[in-house]
Amino acid sequence: xxxxxxxxxxxxxxxxxxxxxxxxxxxxxxxxxxxxxxxxxxxxxxxxxxxxxxxxxxxxxxxxxxxxxxxxxxxxxxxxxxxxxxxxxxxxxxxxxxxxxxxxxxxxxxxxxxxxxxxxxxxxxxxxxxxxxxxxxxxxxxxxxxxxxxxxxxxxxxxxxxxxxxxxxxxxxxxxxxxxxxxxxxxxxxxxxxxxxxxxxxxxxxxxxxxxxxxxxxxxxxxxxxxxxxxxxxxxxxxxxxxxx
Length: 245
Ligand code: GLP
Hints:
The structure is a single chain. The protein is 33% helix and 17% strand. The protein has helices spanning 9-26, 41-54, 80-87, 109-123, 159-165, 184-188, 203-211, 235-238, and strands spanning 2-6, 31-34, 62-65, 67-69, 99-100, 128-131, 153-156, 178-181, 192-197, 229-234. Helix 1 (9-26) crosses helix 2. It binds 2-amino-2-deoxy-6-O-phosphono-alpha-D-glucopyranose (GLP).
């Protein structure tokens, strides 16, 4: 794992955006894996700026999102579909038929997982996967204990993840209990992975990622086995804790 540190969240976002924009320019048909949550919003802001000022085009880019809540419609502002529209897609020249997100409203959830895997097979592999890090080490919505061999599947969200994500909802009761997520093995199929880690609340998880063992109890630990992982961490993660990155 290649670890790059940035002095601030803004610097991290700019660095990640510059990296991705270069990749898109080099390969206009790139397949990107995208994440939601607070961490990548700065990156998406920078990609939009880059698109507007430098004209980087996403016309031939395909994207796969990691996950979606079960039971939230596309119109629900808390769905990851709405998140991606708001924070990225509506500002780019990307073609909506090439932006894939699991359908959390599907009446046949298992079937939806299989369909998503088929799409990944058809349009993939993912060239560059963007990841955030859950405070409990989750990637996508793969909670501790998830099999490293998992493909796209339905998960029951842990109380800690529902609590962490409740900041986006009116009430914790409104946070869905389940989600569809790409599995660990689906994520590991990406040719390259860019993990973004920002904020003091990720310090413990980051430390465990660096120094802990590879275990299904800490899903992100599998990244140590991927041949091409870059980690971008900001100063608030490193703090003065003596974490050596
Ligand atoms: C969420 C998402 C993940 C995200 C992670 C961290 O639950 N499903 O894809 O990477 O948790 O979120 P944040 O960046 O808001 O801390």
